[in-house]
Amino acid sequence: MFMVLAALALLLWLPRLQAGQFHKLTADKGEFTATVAASGVTITNRHSTSTLTWQAVPHHVETPGLFVLLSNDKNNSCLAVMPKRGTADPDRLRAVLDRHAPAPARG
């Protein structure tokens, strides 16, 4: 019984732990900005700039508050999260993402 309770507690606590670790990794980098262009997405922070081509992130999914760019390469993972609150025109961003990185086919 103890093992079941311990496993349940771990499952409930693990996402919070992972989020805290991610926050610690990114806190010193300052604000992140993303620029979407015909060539891909450029993500910039205080210390670095990375460009993801549309070939690297050929798909996106949308949640009520986010656009998430996804890789379909099992050997090379890539993920970019863009909050909708970061754009003045989410419909325009959605149109660009639909054109260059359509949602993956459900099947």
Name its key features.
6 strands; 107 residues; three-stranded antiparallel β-sheet; alpha+beta
Structure description:
It contains 2 helices and 6 strands; from the N terminus they run αββββββα. A 3-stranded antiparallel beta sheet has the order 1-2-3, covered by helices on one side. A hairpin with a 3-residue loop joins β4 and β5. The chain has helices spanning 2-27, 90-100; strands at residues 33-37, 40-44, 49-53, 59-62, 66-70, 79-83. It is α+β, with helices and mostly antiparallel strands. Helix content is 35%, strand content 27%. It is globular, with a radius of gyration of 17 Å.
Task: Describe how the helices and strands are arranged.
Blueprint: H1 2-27, E1 33-37, E2 40-44, E3 49-53, E4 59-62, E5 66-70, E6 79-83, H2 90-100
Antiparallel strand pairs: 1-2, 2-3, 4-5, 5-6
